[in-house]
Write a structure and sequence with these properties.
This is AcrR family transcriptional regulator. The protein is mainly α and 207 residues long. It contains nine helices and no strands. The protein has helices at residues 3-31, 38-45, 49-56, 59-71, 85-99, 104-115, 120-147, 156-176, 183-199. It is elongated.
Length: 207
Amino acid sequence: MPPEQRRTQEQRRATTRAALLAAAAELVVESGVRAVTLARVGERAGYSRGIVTHNFGSKQALLDALAKSSQSGFVPGVVTMSPGLERLLALVEGYVAELGRDSVASRAFLLLWAEAATAAELSASFRERDEAFRADLRDDVAAGIADGTIRADIDPQDVAVAVLGQLRGIGMQRLLDPDAVDTERVGRACAQQWRQALTVMSGIDPG
């Protein structure tokens, strides 16, 4: 098969997969996770159930993929930064700012994340996603300690748990009451609070 044709097929598969994930996110936001079925996702996206099954195999695999895709690259530009204090602060401020865009994918992720506390079919996937997020946060704190920009007495795991809890909590508040959360202002405030918490008391200028 010629390379150009093969690339075209790959692009078609990627387009189909993206459309199915977008349809699943819409259904989660509109009616909740229990309303998501392979048939309804296919219908919403304009495909057959067979196409959905071919791409994901099961509802759980579809929801796993949705959770992963909706958070991948959520904060633009952070992935290109070196681990450390500044990347951590950029992530905090950028994450909260992105919540203000109220995208269907981010709203679906938060709804699924909340549902994962009581839904066994979601819990394993979201534990994995949260641990991956905490690992990135731990890397930032450890790098900051190593280069002297973060206090040496800080525990990376404690910070990772606290930051993740803060971001998810702000997201849920925004989901429930959008007018109560000015994401631009809150994002800046959170970043400044973390800068002070991680640097003050050691003689480091918090900037």
